[in-house]
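Title: Comparing notes on inverse folding

I've been comparing how different people in this forum approach sequence design from structure. To keep things fair, I'm posting one structure and asking everyone to reply with a full sequence. Here's the target:
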């Protein structure tokens, strides 16, 4: 699987970032977003691979050509198992594998997913989108964030 590279020059500076908290899998969340927002997010062939920890984060996108909007939905969490070599393990211990959960944007570690919408000109449109997302029964909370991130380059998907 090829990796997605991050390039600071390719990013659209005109995007809104919506944080979503939900306990469901990414594909279920995307299904409900597509249904409620009347969009067609589809999974990219390549996941996001963060170069520091090599964890994979799912990413979905949709381009609305009639409104000139680009929607990108991505996971903020990744699960992995790492093998730990230890000679002191017993036959019945399961300590040689460690489950690891990492966050893509560590400043908002309680958030499960993010939705970016590029080229939105009207703030009322974002408020309407937030209202619709909050009406989805599997969504715990959602809000727009403009927090300054230490690793802002993580939001650049080319």
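Reply #1:
Here's my take.
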């Amino acid at each position: 699987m090829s990796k997605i590279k991050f390039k600071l020059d390719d990013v659209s500076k005109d995007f809104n970032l919506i944080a979503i908290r939900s306990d469901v899998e990414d594909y279920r969340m995307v299904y409900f977003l597509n249904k409620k927002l009347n969009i067609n997010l589809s999974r990219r062939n390549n996941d996001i691979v963060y170069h520091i920890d090599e964890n994979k984060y799912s990413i979905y996108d949709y381009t609305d050509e009639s409104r000139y909007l680009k929607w990108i939905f991505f996971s903020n969490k990744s699960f992995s198992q790492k093998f730990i070599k230890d000679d002191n393990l017993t036959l019945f211990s399961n300590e040689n594998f460690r489950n690891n959960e990492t966050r893509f944007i560590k400043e908002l570690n309680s958030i499960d997913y993010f939705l970016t919408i590029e080229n939105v000109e009207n703030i009322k449109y974002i408020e309407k989108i937030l209202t619709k997302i909050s009406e989805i029964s599997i969504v715990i909370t959602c809000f727009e964030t403009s927090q300054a991130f230490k690793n802002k380059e993580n939001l650049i998907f080319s």
